[in-house]
Amino acid sequence: MTREETLNELKKVIAPYTVNKEMLAGINDQTDLIRDLKINSANLVDIIIDAEAKYDIEIDYDSADRMTNVGSCLDVITEKINQR
Amino acid sequence: MISTGNDIVALKAINVARTKQQNFYSKIITETEKALYDEQFSDRLPFEQFVWLAWSVKESVFKYLQRVNPELVFSPSKIKLHELVAPITETISNFEGCDFNSEMVYKGVFDFSPHTFYSRTIITDDFIFSVVNRTNNFEKVMWGIKKINLSDADDQSKAVRIFALTMLNTLFPDAELEIDKNRHSCPIILKDGVEIPMPISLAHHDHWVGYSFALA
Question: Which residues are B8's β-sheet partners?
Fold first, then answer.
């Protein structure tokens, strides 16, 4: 899966938790999940769980802690897919 | 280090079934914390409320420390619940916003090495609201919670500022007060255009907004 394909799938994972659909369409590595997409922090765990199901991966504590912006989410997901 | 941290979880907005799933709650609480729940609280506190109580305190600890260390990463598993007591015997002071059952006030001790934090959490049918402090004395911590009609992020942001400023204006009746953010996105209080050394924390979730600030 290319980074762009992973990004497109990640948009679907994030979509239920943001009302900022316009910004979601144009997200990049620097987009912050809380500050830019206005996702409530209580939903960050939902995104991690949904990503685990979507990509058939397991995201450990330390990796989950890194998932604060789109770039770090893609890095973690790619790492875990490669470890399968 | 003087700071403050608070957090709200709106209970109508959480997914109860999902919270009870091991792959979900294990991202928030450790096995030791789960064991503490099973031993001491399973007969009087729904599990999902325990999980979100832990989340709200851990998030409050993160907010408290992020002001001092902007590069800090929120890491729920590293902020560890050491002790939880309820109901508490002391009176909850400096709190505004709603009536609550004193039996649903929880006092906690959390460790985030090398720091120890003390917490107060109010649980109602609608929300879990926590505030943390570095000492177990909360007389100089003011906190409040309020229900709002709209739950859009911009509405929450405006409403929580108006709510906090209403309380702050009672403390500084003759001053021009504003709440802004510093370059690390931490909220700050400006008095007549100048930041004052009174840390403030803002929280919102769904239809609830809340503040806490530390008096000098």
Answer: B129
Strand B141-147, strand B95-96: pairing: parallel
- Whether residue B70 is preceded by a cis peptide bond, meaning omega within 30 degrees of 0, is no
- Interchain proximity B77–A61, CB inside 8 Å: yes
A residues 21..60 contacting B (CB < 8 A):
35, 38, 40-42, 45-46, 48-49, 52
Domain boundaries, chain B: 5-144, 147-214
Write out pLDDT tens, residues B139-170. 999 999 999 998 888 899 999 999 999 999 99
Owner of token pair 């007549």 = B192
Q: Could you tell me the fold of the domain covering B5-144?
A: Ribosomal Protein L22; Chain A (3.90.470)
Please give the ipTM for the structure prediction.
0.88
- Domain A3-83 bears CATH identifier 3.20.20.450: no
Q: Give this prediction's pTM.
A: 0.94
Q: Do A46 and B27 touch (CB under 8 A)?
A: no
